[in-house]
Amino acid sequence: MGYKKFAVSPGFEEGGSLFKPEQLAMLGSIVGADAKIELTTFKQLYVELDENLFEAVQDQLRLTGLDIQPAGFYTKNLIACNFCRGAEDAGLNLAKRLDQAVAGKEVPSPLKIGFAGCALGTSEPLLKDISVIKMNKVYDVYVGGEAKGIKARLGQLFVSSLPEDQVIPVVTGLIKVFQEQGKKKEKFSKFVQRLTIEELRKVTGTCLNY
Fold first, then answer.
1. H helices present in 64-163, as ranges
2. Which residues are in the Nitrite/sulphite reductase 4Fe-4S domain (predicted)?
3. In what order do the strands lie in the sheet with 138-143?
4. Are residues 184 and 105 in the same domain?
């Protein structure tokens, strides 16, 4: 009997990306006692279960409102703050659209993308591979953060004062370059250092100050 793994996330509401008690209860009842559930550092749960049950279980979980994504070398669901300033002021609608645009894309190494609704950055965006921070009515994008290891580092400012309608194109453009030029198992932070942030701006057609 083989086992396969997939990722589960709760989606976004005002208050953040939080699993509801009924969702967790339903998750446990659907996947069964033999499944393994792993808590990840990127606000997803990894579910590992009998491959013969794989598709049926995913379909049932989707009916409960949970978001299902592949596990492994893919872009993860957006790691966002709790939108404590309110949906509009903290950019909740953009966060939802950005999550839909980025999650589940195959990449050379797992990619974490962060979002913060203000400069307080409670979601620790500068430790993510790519991060979006709302600054009043515009957005700053950072790249190359690394939270693990003795060489942990903060992300570098990639573009500032970006209007809302350009956030998704810029982030998906960064993912595309990583897909095309990243080496297998190369962390995004190492990729940014290797390519250089100046070259990354050049190949994506992005200026520092929008």
1. 87-90, 92-102
2. 93-205
3. 79-80, 113-116, 130-135, 138-143, 156-162
4. yes
Looking at residue 66, its amino acid is: L
Residue 101 and residue 169 in one domain: yes
Q: Say which residue the tokens 């409102």 belong to.
A: 65
pLDDT band at 196 (very low <50, low <70, confident <90, very high): very high
At 68-109, the pLDDT tens digits run 999 999 999 999 988 888 888 889 999 999 999 999 999 999
17 pLDDT higher than 80: no
The pLDDT of residue 144 is 96
Q: Which of 15, 45, 70 is the last residue of a domain?
A: 70
Which residue range forms the structural domain that includes residue 42? Answer: 3-70
Claim to verify: residue 47 and residue 136 sit in the same structural domain: no
Euclidean distance between CA atoms 33 and 56, whole angstroms: 16
What is the pTM for the complete model shown? 0.90
CA distances from 60 to 20, 40, 47, 117 (A): 16, 22, 14, 32
Q: Would residue 13 count as lying in a domain? A: yes
Q: What is the largest CA-CA distance in the chain?
A: 54
| DSSP code, position 154 | P
Dihedral over Cα of 132, 135, 139, 141: its sign: negative
In a domain, 210, yes or no: no
Measured at the CA of 105, the angle between CA 188 and CA 31, to 5 degrees, comes to 115
Which are the contacts of 133, defined by CB distance < 8 A and separation ≥ 6? 115, 116, 118, 119, 121, 125, 139, 140, 141, 142
